[in-house]
Amino acid sequence: MPLKLLKAATAAAFVISSPAFADEGMWTFDAFPAAQMKATYGFAPDQAWLNRVQQSAVRLSVGCSASFVSNTGLILTNWHCVSLCVGDLSSADKDYNKSGFLATTLVDEKACPGMQAEVLVSITDATAEVKAATAGVEASKVAQARAVAIAQLEEEACKDDNKELFRCEVIDLYRGGQYKVYKYRTYKDVRLVFAPEKEVGFFGGDPDNFNFPRYNLDSGFLRAYENGKPVKTPTYLPWTQETPKDGDVVFVAGNPGSTERLRTVNQLKFERDFPLQSDLLILSEWRGRLIEYRNKSVEAKRSAESVFYIVENSFKALYGQQRALADPSFLAIKEPEEADLKAKVRADAKLRAEIGDPWADIDRLLAKQQDLFWQYQYLESYSGATSSLYPMAVNLVRLANEGAKPLAERLPGYSDADMVQIQEQLLADAPVYKEIEQIGLELWLSKAREYLTADHPAIKRLLGSESPEGIAARGIAGTKLDDKAVREALIKGGKAAIDASTDPLIVLARRAEADARAINVKMNQEVNGPISQAAERIAAARFAVYGSNVYPDATFTLRLSYGVVDGWTYGGVKIPSTTNIGGYFERASGEFPFVAAPSWLAAKSSLDPSIPFNISTTNDVIGGNSGSPLIDRQGRVVGAVFDGNIHSLGGNFAYDGRYNRTVSVTTAAITEALSKVYKADRLVAELKAK
Amino acid sequence: MPLKLLKAATAAAFVISSPAFADEGMWTFDAFPAAQMKATYGFAPDQAWLNRVQQSAVRLSVGCSASFVSNTGLILTNWHCVSLCVGDLSSADKDYNKSGFLATTLVDEKACPGMQAEVLVSITDATAEVKAATAGVEASKVAQARAVAIAQLEEEACKDDNKELFRCEVIDLYRGGQYKVYKYRTYKDVRLVFAPEKEVGFFGGDPDNFNFPRYNLDSGFLRAYENGKPVKTPTYLPWTQETPKDGDVVFVAGNPGSTERLRTVNQLKFERDFPLQSDLLILSEWRGRLIEYRNKSVEAKRSAESVFYIVENSFKALYGQQRALADPSFLAIKEPEEADLKAKVRADAKLRAEIGDPWADIDRLLAKQQDLFWQYQYLESYSGATSSLYPMAVNLVRLANEGAKPLAERLPGYSDADMVQIQEQLLADAPVYKEIEQIGLELWLSKAREYLTADHPAIKRLLGSESPEGIAARGIAGTKLDDKAVREALIKGGKAAIDASTDPLIVLARRAEADARAINVKMNQEVNGPISQAAERIAAARFAVYGSNVYPDATFTLRLSYGVVDGWTYGGVKIPSTTNIGGYFERASGEFPFVAAPSWLAAKSSLDPSIPFNISTTNDVIGGNSGSPLIDRQGRVVGAVFDGNIHSLGGNFAYDGRYNRTVSVTTAAITEALSKVYKADRLVAELKAK
């Protein structure tokens, strides 16, 4: 699968007992620390406020957050969250990245291929059920036993619901500390309403990404449809053009993708030296290949736009994470926390007997994980992940193979409910660019041979006497998987159709499957299962020692963060919290990516230069929060979160409230641009309607 | 400057007191441990043997080793050491990488642009003089004071010699433990005699690089000339077609480039997380750009051949180093060694008073180095290093600026003798490919902005309102520095000519110089100088505790390693020491890079398949040793070192005799190929002459 959209953003030293910095925490809606917030800020939201915000918050299947901002399904998110859709809807004749997109009437709103929206409607506890299913199970079978129990719980929780409208998912919180069933209302027809030109949606481009001050209209609008009509969404966030001031309380409701704050220090070092390293190296080479490819022609540049953005953004976010973990002073935040918990467990005989030494157990398992790492990465985790078509082939082969087995024998991630989602993804209508596919497939195959060597038995089976370049060229030229009807026929035909297929990518995926599946099973049995058991014991120790006033690691599920509008001071330089529209024109030097959009230059005299454009706040967020509504104490939407500053990237591991800031585009600037630059009168009227 | 040719190769746990593995050590010729070797193998070379080998060993300016193998200046080295020359001599019409190169008569031998050869003729001690020059000097001025003293010692040591024929250089051994003056006889006209086709010189390509078993004719021949005639070299290594057997003693005489075995553990961690990381990321993106560029046309592929090889080889060597340092079990070799030395210093009151705690001092300095690292890297160390033309511009500007100053105020590396070498390099005749130059210059500028941010004052000064892409395109299109006459005129014109130049690369280098020079000075004053003082104290502690039976870190100067022919066993798999010519044809599957050369296929029936092709030995070598003669106990050359196995890459930090192996191509295979495949009768006759 394509690497996930990432816009990390966060902030100061995570402390286990209770957050060291006032604004730390990505809280679940069923455990919001209202008393703690009230003690700090003299205000906390009541249950009605929380309920309304929860029901207005939207998760997008592209890995972003969003919110309903009208009673007819209008959704606010980021430009960079709709940019994949913008690319999919564009063609050589019409490039919406360049022109922007505005549906002047309802019928002009265009379906985004594969995009789905979801709202979290209920949370119920299932900790006891999941723990019971793995109690007494030997370490190597834990991952599988848990997967089976979870699939059954999900089935049970949604059994009375219309499967087209609702979806149930068990969420692992606190790394095995709690399991909860999250029920989602899903919207499968999501259409594009508005996206600005990339020049203003992503002004400053990669160089300014994760930096501040910023001047980006990184916003876009979508609308949820059902049966060809906009859905009714009576619960939504009211729009305002007011912008909060320094010190004003603000909230972010969204879906932080993942954090590693509860992992052991040695797990973080492993993360730095293996997965992050492996990702950064392949992303760097991929980026280099795409840069030169883009130079070939205008159409090459256009067609590579989306994937290139994802590659650059992922690189920078992951790079920032690795830099944090390479800094001895950053790890020095984590080490005493871990030492404290260990010491408290050791000092309590009963606890010590119950918990044991899960840190030492994890260290031993990390050595095993290291042994398997490169095989797991290149035979399974990355399997064609730098292309779109080959992961389709893998999924088609797996649907056929796993679907033919009883649940208990399937790979995790292939429950019946999972398979419905995979099928839906396989039937999305996104355009495929074969030259870019060939680059991506060749990249994976050539790196697999490089890291595992030409003499590795699995590489010999994968490549035979062919070269990565030859397989990629012939495979992409010959495949018909870019035709949705072909994919549909293969899904319907099941295992027989897959086994009989002569499509070169299906043939390749079939050839790769035994080794890929074997390393997946081995990693789950020998590493992931046993590590999760040890992590459960650490979670139990943490609850026992510090109580429950802690928040779980991010899991791309709905969370609420509170904070205030604030700039920061670093190296003696004071960075103010708020930029304005006038600053955009000042920063535009004229060479890419600092080029002002022609539409803005044309409207310049009518725009109020003093209107706040981008704003920094102390909220604790991370990649996946992109598009989250920034909300004031009245529950009104005052902005859309789109980034974190450069100091935020270590937030994956610890929140540093001194420096880490969330960056949003204001509703004030969005309204001004919609009115004056884009003349989007229909949209403005809908936003302002009460 | 272009990144250095690297072919790391080494071997088992370095132990400070005396090598843990019998064959560990890169010994200087003036301190060869004959008694120790004799105790192990019942044989050690006598002084006559050592003298003859020292005078036959050749260092090449491309970063390789070599040896004289006839009395008329014939030099044996690797194909990959002459491949830059092969590329320089090739053109769109005649690609010697494809066809190979054979001078059938003396007049067909062609000069390699910029290639120089050197022989180490004498070693004299200068430790007292250098230490006196820095005694009592404050830390921030140490690097400069030492540079001045060294320049004066070098001038003094060579003052009676013909500067065209001799060069003197002070070498820092044991990281400040000793300083020695090395006098070299230099040969400035080096010509290509023979190079095989890349298909056999680099069979298996990047995938097989640093792997074994191997089947490479990675060999080439050069000849040293003076006044248009081959030089007389009465001292040379006799040629033999005999190949030593398992357990036979073998030596390697060559120039290991650099090792970090005497650095502190925290310096190694810094190395892993900063310089190695930075190199790997830029090499990965560069590689990606070059892969796509090469796909453009046959000529693009040909013209990028040399740089692409250097990028891939450097990546793999550095990657292997980083992997070693990321493996906790590898660092576990180093940590107890350091703890032991520290404990012994602490336990001895007198020593403790004298040595202090240089490890803690270095830790504090590493924090400073980390602060300055990215600025130093992108403003100075990498400055245009991914191009050829921009470093010329930097050197031209520096020659003018530094040359106008007294020695004590110059940057290190700009003594009068250094400047003569820089001028010679600037006047080499290598071809320049402007499209590749543009990729390289753009890469540096864009990464500089990425890592330092668009808001960094030095980046603002470097780029102005332009983009990296714009500056690179206009700069490379407009520059005349690819014309040697233009460079020569700028050298002759001195500072006035440089200041008046409107060449866009000179203009850019002038604009960059103040910030580049400032960070260079700052790094030397605040980090390098103080670290070198602390390292001197560690070196002193080591001599005091363990005596002098230790070898210094590699410094790309002449060393002798002893060992035996041996394979190894890893993960239960036994790898034999020796491959043969028949195996080459068996491994050739037909798709690149496993394609047999047509010349070999044509000669196949005449070749003896049982002749040893490549051979693995326990010698302790590293990048820079490429091309070194493999020598038997009689002092005959039996092979040319061209690689290390995959386990050897951590040899930069520690030698692991269980697994680390040096890989050579045998003189037996070279002779067979020259006779049967290439019909190089003139060359074979010269090699066999007594």
Description:
- Two copies of one chain form a homodimer.
- Chain A has 690 residues and is α+β, with helices and mostly antiparallel strands.
- Chain A folds into two domains: 29-116 and 188-261 and 552-688, Thrombin, subunit H (Beta Barrel), CATH 2.40.10.120; 357-542, no CATH class.
- Chain A is built from 26 helices and 20 strands.
- In chain A, helix 9 packs parallel to helix 10 and helix 16 runs antiparallel to helix 17 (416-426).
- Residues 1-19 of chain A have low confidence and may be disordered.
- At the A-B interface, helix 8, helix 10, helix 12 and helix 18 of A face helix 8, helix 10, helix 12 and helix 18 of B.
- Chains A, B: It comes from Candidatus Phycosocius bacilliformis.
Characteristics:
homodimer, 690 residues, alpha+beta, Thrombin, subunit H, 2 domains, eleven-stranded antiparallel sheet, seven-stranded antiparallel sheet, 26 helices, 20 strands, 47% helix, 15% strand, disordered N terminus
Task: Briefly note the structural class of the backbone of chain A.
Answer: alpha+beta
Q: Please report the distance between the alpha carbons of the first and last residues of chain A.
A: 41 Å
CATH topology of the largest domain in chain A: Thrombin, subunit H
Largest Cβ-defined interface: A-B, 49 and 49 residues
Rg on CA atoms of chain A, Å: 25 Å
Which range best describes the helical content of chain A: under 10%, 10-25%, 25-40%, 40-55%, 55-70% or over 70%? 40-55%
How many alpha or pi helices of chain A? 26
Average pLDDT reading of chain A: 93
What's the CATH architecture of the largest domain in chain A?
A: Beta Barrel
**What is the assembly state of the chains in this entry?**
homodimer
Name of the top-level CATH class of the largest domain in chain A: Mainly Beta
Poorly predicted spans of chain A: 1-19
Tally the structural domains of chain A.
2
Largest sheet of chain A: 11 strands, antiparallel
How many extended strands of chain A?
20
Name the beta content range of chain A: 5-15%
* Large-scale geometry of chain A: globular
Keywords (chains A, B): Aminopeptidase, Hydrolase, Protease, Serine protease, Signal
InterPro entries (chains A, B): Pep_S46 (IPR019500), Peptidase_S1_PA (IPR009003), Peptidase_S1_PA_chymotrypsin (IPR043504)
Pfam families (chains A, B): Peptidase_S46
Family (chains A, B): Belongs to the peptidase S46 family.
